[in-house]
Automatic annotation (TrEMBL):
Pfam family, one: Hydrolase
Listed name of the protein: HAD hydrolase-like protein
InterPro entries in the cross-refs: HAD-like_hydrolase_sf, HAD-like_sf, HAD_sf, PGP-like_dom2
């Protein structure tokens, strides 16, 4: 065991530890087809994607979806995603990085906006659950920001200080949530967002999880 550094990583799940971008694009395009919208390429998706998701739809439709449209699209998205996520795996290098961070005596957790009751068995199924001191998914309605969830998540972790905490995610919202609680953030380009949109946030942007962890180590030192 290395020295305890007190450094903690809060990992995002979708698009970060879990490489599910293909399932997400397919699900998005299935939802769009329902409203007669054109399908998106990966590049176009990354360029336009933003949270809250209704705002993303607004960019494509020129208006916000109605409540009925939003519910229909949300339902199709989740049904398609649930069918296709079974073909998705962990991001390259994730397993080694998680066990390395843990064996160095540091802590890590997952905070995801993915439904909690579906997230936990998924993490367990990959055999990586023991690496985390806590795994939190979303318990309320979808579509909001991660910031309030981050407040609750950190409050529930014993001995973890926000200033020694680094959030690793693939979305600008991950950085917003980190800054909201006084933590740091590193953004990864393998998920939903383009490098250009992530670089506008003002935190380190990396292309591999290995670089993300190295950056986290530096920031938490």
């Amino acid at each position: 065991m290395g020295m305890k550094t007190g450094a903690h990583i809060v990992w995002d799940w979708n698009g970060t530890l879990f490489h599910d971008i293909d399932a997400i694009i397919g699900a998005t395009n299935a939802a769009f087809a329902e409203l007669g919208l054109e399908s998106l390429t990966l590049e176009k998706y990354r360029e336009l994607y933003c949270v809250p998701v209704p705002k993303f739809y607004e960019r494509l439709m020129g208006r916000l979806p109605t409540e009925a449209e939003w519910e229909a699209m949300d339902e199709i998205f989740h049904r398609y995603y649930a069918e296709h996520r079974v073909t998705c795996g962990l991001t390259v290098g994730a397993v080694e990085l998680l066990s390395g961070w843990r064996s160095a005596g540091r802590s890590q957790s997952i905070l995801s906006m993915y439904v909690h009751d579906e997230l936990v068995p998924l993490v367990r199924g990959f055999g990586i659950e023991p690496h985390f001191i806590r795994v939190d998914g979303r318990t309320g309605p979808s579509g909001g920001s991660k910031a309030e969830h981050m407040v609750r998540h950190l409050a529930s972790l014993t001995g973890v200080e926000p200033e020694r905490t680094v959030v690793i995610g693939d979305a600008a919202d991950d950085a917003v949530a980190a800054l909201h609680v006084g933590a740091r953030a590193v953004l990864y380009t393998g998920g939903s967002h383009s490098r250009a949109s992530l670089e506008g946030v003002g935190v380190p942007v990396v292309d591999t999880l290995e670089d993300a962890v190295a950056e986290a180590e530096r920031l938490a030192a």
